[in-house]
Write a structure and sequence with these properties.
The complex is a heterodimer of chains A (720) and B (159). Chain A has three domains: 200 residues, 2-Layer Sandwich (Aldehyde Oxidoreductase, domain 4), CATH 3.30.365.10; 129 residues, Aldehyde Oxidoreductase, domain 3 (Alpha-Beta Complex); 304 residues, Aldehyde oxidase/xanthine dehydrogenase, molybdopterin binding domain (Aldehyde Oxidoreductase, domain 4, 2-Layer Sandwich), CATH 3.30.365.10. Helices cover 26% and strands 24% of the residues of chain A. Chain A is built from 17 helices and 29 strands. Chain A is globular, with a radius of gyration of 27 Å. The relative contact order of chain A is 0.11. Chain B folds into two domains: 74 residues, Ubiquitin-like (UB roll) (Roll); 71 residues, [2Fe-2S]-binding domain (DNA polymerase, domain 1), CATH 1.10.150.120. Chain B has a three-stranded antiparallel β-sheet, covered by helices on one side. Chain B has a two-stranded antiparallel sheet with strand order 1-2. In chain B, a hairpin with a 2-residue loop joins strand 1 and strand 2. The longest helix of chain B is centred in the C-terminal third of the chain and has 18 residues. Chain B starts with a strand and ends with a helix. Classes of the chains: A alpha+beta (720), B alpha+beta (159).
Chain lengths: 720, 159
Amino acid sequence: MNGSSVKFVPEPERYEFTAGPMHHFEIARRDFFKFLGAGIAVFVVAKDSFAKQETAPTKGFHPEELPQDISSWLHVGEDGKVTAFTGKVEIGQNIRTSLAQTVADELRVPFEAVTMVTADTALTPFDFGTVGSRSMPTMSPQLRRVASSARDLLVGAAAKEWNVAAEGLTAANGKVTDPASGRSLSYGELARGKTLAQNLPAEDPVTPPDQWTIAGKPIPKKDARSFVTGQHRYTPDIRRPGMLYGKVRRPPSFGATLTSYDAKAAQAMSGVTVVRDGDFVGAAASNERDASKALEAIHTEWKEIPQSSSKELFSDLKKNASAKSDERSRKTKGSVEEGLAAAAHRLDATYTVAFIAHAPLEPRAAVAEWSDGKLTVWTGSQRPFAVRDELADVFHVAESNVRVIVPDTGSAYGGKHTGDAALEAARLARAAGRPVQVVWTREEEFTWAYFRPAGVMEIKSGIAGDGTLTAWEFHNYNSGMSAIDMPYTVPNQHIQFHATQCPLRSGSYRGLAATANFFARESHMDELAHAAQMDSLEFRFKNLSDPRLRAVFEAAAKSFGWPRKKTQDGQGFGIAGGSEKGGYVATCVEVEVDRTSGAVRVVKMTTAFECGAIVNPDGLRHQVIGANIQGLGGALFEAIEFENGRITNPRFSRYRVPRFRDVPEIEAVLLNRKDLPSAGAGETPIMAVAPAIGNAIFQATGTRLRALPMVPNGLPSAKA
Amino acid sequence: MAKPIELEINSKRYQVQCDPETPLLSALRDELGLTGTKYGCGEGQCGACTVLIGGAPRRSCQISVSAAAAKPITTIEGLEKDGHLHPVQQAFLDAGAFQCAYCTSGMILSSVGLLSTNPNPTSAEIVQSLQGNICRCGTQPRIVDAVQQAAKSMQGHGR
């Protein structure tokens, strides 16, 4: 719908889930008004509910039904209250707030008048998922068009009421006013007694960012009070009448199969439901302790399979790489061989990244309730519609009989794409005939969720005497293709992703493989800058033509004071940057290395970020600073260790995440490009953190660290 | 059936009918419906389950109901008085010191505990005292600001 935005195609990313089929929506139009009361409603229709930048088709409504490919809608009630519906999920990224701002801005109502209904498969339109930094670039323009269309309807209703031309009327602050006569009618008055609905006209102009009044402002989180008072109910806080607490017997190792099962003792316990279904073994009882006791009383034996360990991880990833590669996973331009031959300096280096865990503080959880063959599930998932389909599939019920509701969730970071807890709760609830809640323990969360894939990156490069890149060969084993492309100008390139046998269940993680690919590339660029005896930023500029990337590098450097001179021993400065998912990022870091203990402390980080027009600078600052802090963990010390199909550090006492003392002074420099559409911001700000730190450690110590995490136990080489 | 155990929570008396070794966290959440206190790790490492026992911050996943019965307990639900937020809650709200907010109850109670013994902490003291509380969203800088703001406002109001 916006000519300047690029159609989004799910990247050929091994670990990103691909779009599912389109689904029917069951509520008929008359039911919609029954549900919300009379008023004015607008629906946006799009051909493809995942990639909706295209102009909506001009097909009309079937008289009684909503279109099956509807993607968002909005209702203005007789009380003037506005309700907007989206399948997106609130997971701490404050999308509820920024989308409400967008609606209020376009409809010309106060922010407080807008309620966002999110992520309920019975009420909200189909949505692929809250993934890939897509909420802002796809949902925000759609809601704007819906709101703008509703505004036109209201203006039209007023024009009819007063028998004047609509063109002369103005809409502001929830009212339509006729400047000629001074009379006005509130939106509530205009909606009264009406059940007016329309789908979106083909092209309705929306308010450009330089005229935004509510969007663009640092509006605080919606419903913020309920979070500081403990009143908000996350999935684990939901209590249903007669609800039981469920526990699941996990296999001793990944891939183990159940060979022997005896639940007589557990079944003899009063008030306990025991379920065995294939390799699934679980118990439910009226409290968690009884459920755990019942589970302990079940005797199980398992057949285990031999598995690799984290010690051989990187050699295994290379050894087990597929010999086949398809067209989509490699790119060649010019001749790397010739580029290398012409180079004054050549460099070969290998970089690795470990498996890491999302460790959302709210673990995976679900409450499932069956009633008359219909299933309702509350669960913290980024993909409620996918969970609904999975439940329908597994339990052989129609999708229309499954409702998945996602309460605002205690974070996800790409880790909550699946519906595991939902399936477990639903299985137990069906057997118990009562609602069942399953909340994973931290150990389950660290073991049975999925991980950011580990990877190996190999780079061969060459530069001319003046620092111009002549050749770039980049191979990524296993972690993925996000940001695998070279943002710098190189005439001779070969870039390739290698699929390989991955020893652990892996999936999306904030930024996908971009963190790995940024780490390899930006560390390597730093190594090349040193080889060319150039300043690291100057070397980048020499090879950079993208003005948006240059602008964030300049902004970060200016604010940080790059290049800075060392004032003490053990001090070092690093810079890194790049672009992904429509966002541009550059990070400068100052580190301090204690040469006696080997301890590395990040003292300061400055991250410049640009994602087009800023919708909520306060929320954006949260995302940028939060991503920087989360990025510290994977850069410095986070790593999942495993052996024989078991995670050996599945606890916060064994798996170190960033804590208060690890947090440096952080500055977020936000570049507001009102002339560009808003891109997402949840992922890209994490990407330059690790290489900037690594480059700073090199400057401080002369030691080049090519493996993430870089200093899980301090810097050995610094210990003399 | 075990004897009921009496607890004083948020100035109210409750009786819980559970195994005395049940973690206080489970009793609060599952027996009494006080779900503002969160489970995060079950090993006292994340601080999400922090409550005040006798005014001091404690991990409710690490203390049994019977051990908690001796002293008054304060949970996040007990901080608001007559519709007025506690200054620490208000400061978190004003600073926007949360993203997903799952850690917020624990952060607020840990901070209330800190300010009761150290009404004017330096930022280093706040960092030290919140070291056992995990925020995965990366809101630590604003949390430190919020605690400092709360300290100021509590001194101003003599609370």
